[in-house]
């Protein structure tokens, strides 16, 4: 699994990762959670025979998962109960489920642990052994989705200044336009509707920061999301080839989107289309 079907909450992402562990590895049991207030509450469990794993909260450095988080690498034991390499703070949970083989994979975002995924078995490893590669790929995919969400949150916080400055300097305005175009590019890659709505909110804030006083009248022109993406990049002076590379489109597709945007804006050139879009408050 190279990517997740992005869903509503971080806990939903963990649940999807746990299901993938069952599907792609030889382990019959999988569980995991994300770091919250200094510990990892297990929020997703699949394949267990008992309810012993419910309520498990793992602290860094404690147990197999805590050690994996501190060392930022997977840890595995084929005989959990007899292992001398870990603390046994959570034996009541793990041994209560009867697990003997246990793999812990840290979820690492920007060089720091954000959670841990577990895969376990009641017996010794099955014939043919166990490879950790699929489990690590799943943890990496989960970390990638969390990284995107953290970046969105960071940008939302940075754009929430209560009183924007009365006027932007040319350098600041150019930086704002670059940020707007970058946000449009990110939004085009995010499948989750909730995240896209939050990105749209941030885009509207950036437009408000760049708007002249008095504010422009509400434009009657309605550009499609892709037309706005292309026009935002073109506003930075990018060629069709550069816009195509930025948005992952064919150059001919970029040309077509730009043409329809120019037609809607009644603009004979791309420069005139950018100027009209800025005047109508469609782009900064």
Automatic annotation (TrEMBL):
<keyword id="KW-0805">Transcription regulation</keyword>
<dbReference type="InterPro" id="IPR029016">
    <property type="entry name" value="GAF-like_dom_sf"/>
</dbReference>
<keyword id="KW-0238">DNA-binding</keyword>
<dbReference type="GO" id="GO:0006355">
    <property type="term" value="P:regulation of DNA-templated transcription"/>
</dbReference>
<protein>
    <submittedName>
        <fullName>Bacterial regulatory protein, luxR family</fullName>
    </submittedName>
</protein>
<dbReference type="Pfam" id="PF00196">
    <property type="entry name" value="GerE"/>
</dbReference>
<dbReference type="InterPro" id="IPR003018">
    <property type="entry name" value="GAF"/>
</dbReference>
<dbReference type="InterPro" id="IPR036388">
    <property type="entry name" value="WH-like_DNA-bd_sf"/>
</dbReference>
<dbReference type="Pfam" id="PF13185">
    <property type="entry name" value="GAF_2"/>
</dbReference>
<feature type="domain" description="HTH luxR-type">
    <location>
        <begin position="216"/>
        <end position="281"/>
    </location>
</feature>
<dbReference type="InterPro" id="IPR000792">
    <property type="entry name" value="Tscrpt_reg_LuxR_C"/>
</dbReference>
<dbReference type="InterPro" id="IPR016032">
    <property type="entry name" value="Sig_transdc_resp-reg_C-effctor"/>
</dbReference>
<dbReference type="GO" id="GO:0003677">
    <property type="term" value="F:DNA binding"/>
</dbReference>
<keyword id="KW-0804">Transcription</keyword>
């Amino acid at each position: 699994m190279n990517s997740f079907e992005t869903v509503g909450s971080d806990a939903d992402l963990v649940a999807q990762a746990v299901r993938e562990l069952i599907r792609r590895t030889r382990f019959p049991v999988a569980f995991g959670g994300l770091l919250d207030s200094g510990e990892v509450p297990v929020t997703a469990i699949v394949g267990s025979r008992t309810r012993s794993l419910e309520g498990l909260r793992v602290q860094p450095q404690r147990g197999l998962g805590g050690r994996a988080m501190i060392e930022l690498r997977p840890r595995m034991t084929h005989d959990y109960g007899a292992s001398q390499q870990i603390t046994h703070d959570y034996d009541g949970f793990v041994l209560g489920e009867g697990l003997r083989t246990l793999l812990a994979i840290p979820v690492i975002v920007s060089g720091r642990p954000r959670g841990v995924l577990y895969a376990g078995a009641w017996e010794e490893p099955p014939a043919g052994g166990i490879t950790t590669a699929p489990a690590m790929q799943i943890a990496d995919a989960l970390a990638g989705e969390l990284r995107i969400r953290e970046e969105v949150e960071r940008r939302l916080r940075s754009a929430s200044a209560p009183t924007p400055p009365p006027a932007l300097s040319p350098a600041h305005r150019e930086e704002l336009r670059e940020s707007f175009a970058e946000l449009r590019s990110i939004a085009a890659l995010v499948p989750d509707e909730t995240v896209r709505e939050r990105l749209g909110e941030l885009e509207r804030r950036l437009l408000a920061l760049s708007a002249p006083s008095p504010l422009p009248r509400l434009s009657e022109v309605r550009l499609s999301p892709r037309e706005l993406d292309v026009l935002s990049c073109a506003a930075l002076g990018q060629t069709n080839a550069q816009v195509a590379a930025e948005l992952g489109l064919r150059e001919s597709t970029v040309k077509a989107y730009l043409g329809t945007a120019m037609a809607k804006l009644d603009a004979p050139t791309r420069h005139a289309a950018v100027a009209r879009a800025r005047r109508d408050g469609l782009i900064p």
